[in-house]
Write a sequence for this structure.
């Protein structure tokens, strides 16, 4: 073998060794970066798990389950990590949405407190007023007796007021709020239940007198 051929083979061998060393260093760097990313993901999952546990307690929901691993069939670690981070971010978004829903009451969650209270008091007053109309029609005296008038003007409106008040107190409270005051619009409810019943009877009597 001539010296030139030997030198060429030596050069090729050195190039192959350098390429192999570079490839090995790149693999090691990717492995180190992958381990760092996995550790970062584990810390994020731990923080997220604590947050979800606390959120489930505030919302009075069952504790989330963190057991089990879903197999995706991916062979690329980078792609698997990317999908894992997307899942974690999506879980944070859903947790924020759940917390926002928990800040709203169960009863008509999209309405303002005053609008919700007006609707509840009005519905209760309407139901009891219809009941009082039934009492008036079914009265054995074929008219408005003193007892019927008292029930219609005082008793049934009081029942409507307290029923609506209790309903707002229970279902008008956000699930995340265990203590504190709830906007019940008590004075407005009294006006709606008692004043509304009185005005409804005045209107009914005016209409019947014209017929």
């Amino acid at each position: 073998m001539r010296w030139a051929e030997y030198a060429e083979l030596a050069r090729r061998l050195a190039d192959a060794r350098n390429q192999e060393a570079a490839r090995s260093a790149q693999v090691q760097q990717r492995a180190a970066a992958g381990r760092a990313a996995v550790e970062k993901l584990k810390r994020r999952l731990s923080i997220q798990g604590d947050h979800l546990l606390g959120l489930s307690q505030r919302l009075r929901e069952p504790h989330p389950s963190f057991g089990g691993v879903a197999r995706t069939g991916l062979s690329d670690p980078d792609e698997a990590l990317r999908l894992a981070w997307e899942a974690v971010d999506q879980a944070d978004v859903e947790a924020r949405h759940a917390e926002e829903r928990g800040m709203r009451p169960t009863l008509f969650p999209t309405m303002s407190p005053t609008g919700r209270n007006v609707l509840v008091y009005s519905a209760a007053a309407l139901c009891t007023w219809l009941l009082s109309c039934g009492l008036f029609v079914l009265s054995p005296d074929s008219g408005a007796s003193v007892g019927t008038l008292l029930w219609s003007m005082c008793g049934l409106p009081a029942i409507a007021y307290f029923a609506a008040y209790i309903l707002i107190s229970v279902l008008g409270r956000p699930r995340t709020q265990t203590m504190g005051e709830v906007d019940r619009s008590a004075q407005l409810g009294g006006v709606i239940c008692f004043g509304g019943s009185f005005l409804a009877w005045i209107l009914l009597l005016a209409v019947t007198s014209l017929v």
User: Anything to note?
Assistant: The mean pLDDT is 81.
